[in-house]
Amino acid sequence: MSFFNILADATEDHSKLGGKAIDVAHRTHNGILNAVGVSKILPSPVKSLADGVFDANKALVEGAGSTTAGMLRSIGGAFGATQQNSHQVPEHQHPNNRDGTRGYGDDSDDNDSHVDEDDESDGEDKDKDDEDNEDDEDDEDNEDKVGEGSLGEEWAPPPRHLRARPDRHDARDHHFKYDSKHRLSAYVDLRHLCPPVYDQGQMGSCTSHAVAAAFEFSVMQQNLPHFSPSRLFIWYKSRELEQRAGIHDAVKKNIGVSLRNAIKSVSPKNKGGVCSEEDWSYEVCKYNKKTLYFVTGAKARRLPSAAATKHSYDHTAVQYAKFDPKGPISLSKQLMQCLDKGIPFVFGMSHCDVIKGTQVSETGHGVPKKLTAKQLKDKKPHNHSLMAVGYIKSEKQFIIRNSWGAHWGEGGYFYMPFSLLKYCYDFWSIKVNRPHHK
User: Fold this and answer.
1) Which domain holds residue 49?
2) Number of other residues whose CB lies within 10 A of the CB of residue 236
3) Is 438 among the domain residues?
4) pLDDT of 366-417, one tens digit each?
5) Is 324 within a domain?
6) Chain-centre distance for alpha carbon 128
7) Quick one: where's region Disordered (predicted)?
8) What contacts 168, CB < 8 A, 6 or more positions away?
9) Which of the 8 DSSP states describes residue 261?
10) What pLDDT does residue 148 have?
């Protein structure tokens, strides 16, 4: 690891500690007010103002740390790029040495239904004979097939079989309303407004990570009380919807989900929502690589606690919009306008192997503008869910947030050429509802 990366990690760690210190001060402040009885007589606007000050300071400290760390990693990557002999591809990251398991199909309409309607057929009982054999698949006899519960010392991206799932077309979707009078800025970068970059580990939870990032961004953007959504909760509830649609034992497996189901899981119209990360924290779990079942007792396959579920009803996404790639306005213009209005969007990317190269992994730069003939022939490409947070109009690039940790790319981000939009799918934006407490 280069000096700049070490310095970046230290910067990010210290900014997180600063954020935690502000949280402690916030709780202490509220505790004192409650203890002396002042809290009961303070007007709500005053309380909200105080909460907003603490939350804004925390976001400022953590955002500054994340942005500075990203800059340091970028400098380190640029400096290291001049040392050609020092950038050989590590054996564990070489494309030919990664898990070659094929992913889920391309971006065809084959998975889901309208985000606002609870109308999927119940397919839970299909293939019931598999249930009797499930525990056998988790036995120690299969330990050599079980994925590790952490990234380990040698990091690698999640295997191709832990892929996101495309949405099924639904004519009832609410679409993004393009403003023809809006003049686009030349450059937009929302990274400083984003929460710290998440790390999904060796689990197929990229979609829940993308939606959680958009959810938390919306909370911070509206200056709502600090709330970090539980990625594991969103993933479990999304897999519940996949299971109801016919994917047997989906909640027990390490599998990807569609963006529509992830958004649907936090929609109030479907009695959805999400609890906080503190209520149901993220945990990378072991699973059987052959069957994809999580081992018995793994948190990722457990029903979230009753308390977590109760708290989830207070935090929902109230608005969403899907972008129409076949509409009269070009997709890139729609997406840039959304970003220019200060709203990130989530989306799926097929052929995401293009971001696994050494240069992209170390600097966030170098994503090819087009696919190779071999990649185009891949009928079951590796699908991956991401969040866009900006664009550089002159360079025809989007700034994309990944979920492989802040050590990857440019502080967890990379630059995607507009030309790759044709290999992306299911573009959504969401806005969070103000929490309500009973």
Assistant:
1) 3-86
2) 24
3) no
4) 999 998 888 888 777 789 999 999 999 999 999 999 999 999 999 999 999 9
5) yes
6) 32
7) 83-173
8) 109, 110, 111, 112, 113, 258, 260
9) H
10) 45
